[in-house]
Amino acid sequence: MHSSLINTYKRLPVSFSHGEGVWLVDDTGRRYLDALSGIAVCGLGHAHPQVTRAICEQAGRLLHTSNLYTIPLQEELGARLLEVSAMQGAFLCNSGAEANEAMIKLARLHGHRKGIDEARIIVMQGAFHGRTLATLSATGNAKVHQGFEPLVPDFIRVPYADAEAVARLAADDERVSAVMVEPVLGEGGVIIPDPGYLAALREICDRHGLLLMLDEVQTGLGRTGRWFAHQHAALLPDVMSLAKALGNGVPIGACLVAGQAVDLFTPGSHGTTFGGNPLACSAALAVLDCLQREDLPTQAQIRGSQLIDGLRRGLAGLNCVREVRGLGLMLAVEMDHPCSELVSRALEQGLLINVTADRVVRLLPPLIISEAEVETLTARLCSLIRDWNAGAFE
Questions:
Q1: Could you say which of 128, 155, 228, 265 is catalytic?
Q2: Residue 21 belongs to domain with CATH number
Q3: 155 noted as active-site residue
Q4: What pLDDT is attached to residue 393?
Q5: 273 and 311 share a domain?
Q6: pLDDT tens, position by position, 256-287
Q7: pTM of the predicted model over 0.90
Q8: Is residue 73 classed as helix, strand or coil in its secondary structure?
Q9: Is 91 among the residues known to form the active site?
């Protein structure tokens, strides 16, 4: 059957009718363990009762008024985000790409304030920041650039986790106004830098008056075992982007600012039609309530340790496995050759996973996953990889 949709995705041959917790159910009634969470979105799992209740109650009262008026729920959400992050201001939008666009605009404003006509931003090889033209240009992946040139100028790319490369550029190029980086590369293969990397970037930015801008769209809100991944390094960025898990499936993003970035935006310099509407804010407030009440960042740390230990034991001795790594419930099993076939094979076995960077199995299960469900996930994935290594699928 011809689809009415533009062909932008190679979709898997399954559709889901409903979900509960870490499980999704397809239109035939078959259950699947969701180890992807809608790509790190459904941190509370599916059909979480408190989020469902918040959405339903708010939908019966008010969906949208626009940012021409005060929105009390937006004020409340902003205050809650600042409380858990120690940042000083929040701009609410609809997605991670929009939050990152706001970051890029802040970097330009900061540069202009310093007298730089063509402000430049240091970005990383292997990074992913979105698919709008500016965020695509900041992304360090030639495949997503193809066909969209000329790209937005003044992004300078350096190797990820190489603080010395950033230091050299910051010292040599007076046009640099900011450093934009993911605390852990997500789409780039779940690459976890050395513990001192972000601290080194903070020091470089402080020395040269640059904005340190952290893309925490995938890593934020408990995913890595802390509220935000940069908290592992005990520092504060100047700008931070959030989205994905903030609404547990309801589209919402945020750009948080501190220090030098606090007063860069002024009335008329940025805006959004739908951002921070009452429905999205109600969902996000329910998410923050659950994250705090159930201490889900700590649970992510505990369950992540269980999962990584189980995978290392279950995959020990397989030459095809180069590394099992992770931070909280953001994990990767890196293979020695491309393994995209594993996604469809896992689907056949009732398991939802993702392969990124060609040969990295990425796991992003809901933060509410139980000890028993981690054991089920471990057993299914280890069996799958062992069969794949033995050539069972040829």
A1: 128
A2: 3.90.1150.10
A3: no
A4: 73
A5: no
A6: 999 999 999 999 999 999 999 999 999 999 99
A7: yes
A8: helix
A9: no
